[in-house]
């Protein structure tokens, strides 16, 4: 999660890519691990950490770009081997995330069993998958649209050289019918879902691939996404559902910014910035628990209504303290109820119990 921040003194301030603005902006970046309730389709942020780019990392990135610009000589680079190393080199971003993931799993240990970790398409690569598999979890993410996929080799070994691993290359726009799992049409759009266990030369193992292909029946234009999981037995419905549920985390970010001060805090020191961000995410979880009580009677009851309710209760409490004599219980409950409803957009009427 990236959000803009003005000034020059805030700890961790740097230049990060904002998907909302589709450009690099000056601001702060936080990586958040959340637990998603599949049945309730709701996300709960648990572990948040600030992403800080080190100066050495920036220098290495600039040096790498300058080296890539130089023309490489023809042939295999010196020291390159045929066999791909099973243990990849984790880039600095993953090295920062790895201990956070370990701490996140420690918090859940003995309380909640989480079988899958879903990360956005930016992490749809072998190092990220390898890092997640080391924790005992299965990985779900998205591949690049130009990812090269191959069927496992099923031909006859000729007896000469290494045994072939890769079969024919897969065209995701024209996949074989045996991989088709769903074919639906609605509003002039044909949606086909394919699933297969395929290979990618960037990964050291087979992956469970789900391709969602949409075709405009009038213009014949096509668009597709390639989802994958390291769990080869995961059904296409669950794989697709788990990845789309990742968007629920975006609602947590929205609420933290809009209602709980994530975009507005003025702290500049490291500890204060960390506390402010985590307090915002804590309030996201706490408010979601409080909302359940009121949404039983009114499904439209919002966070703004919740804040108005408790603000009204505080005003009523402070006002009653000024009275020379407190009113009786029934009248007191009516006062609290009326004042708490004043600022609500979707008020909930709760009758006062009488004896």
What does this structure look like?
The chain has helices at residues 55-69, 92-108, 126-133, 236-245, 248-258, 270-295, 303-321, 329-340; strands at residues 2-4, 14-18, 23-37, 42-50, 116-118, 138-143, 150-152, 166-169, 180-186, 189-198, 207-216, 222-229. With 355 residues, the protein is an alpha+beta fold. Strand 3 (23-37) and strand 4 form a beta hairpin. It is elongated, with a radius of gyration of 27 Å. The two termini are 52 Å apart. Residues 351-355 have low confidence and may be disordered.
Gist of the model:
This protein has 355 residues and is α+β, with helices and mostly antiparallel strands. It has helices spanning 55-69, 92-108, 126-133, 236-245, 248-258, 270-295, 303-321, 329-340, and strands at residues 2-4, 14-18, 23-37, 42-50, 116-118, 138-143, 150-152, 166-169, 180-186, 189-198, 207-216, 222-229.
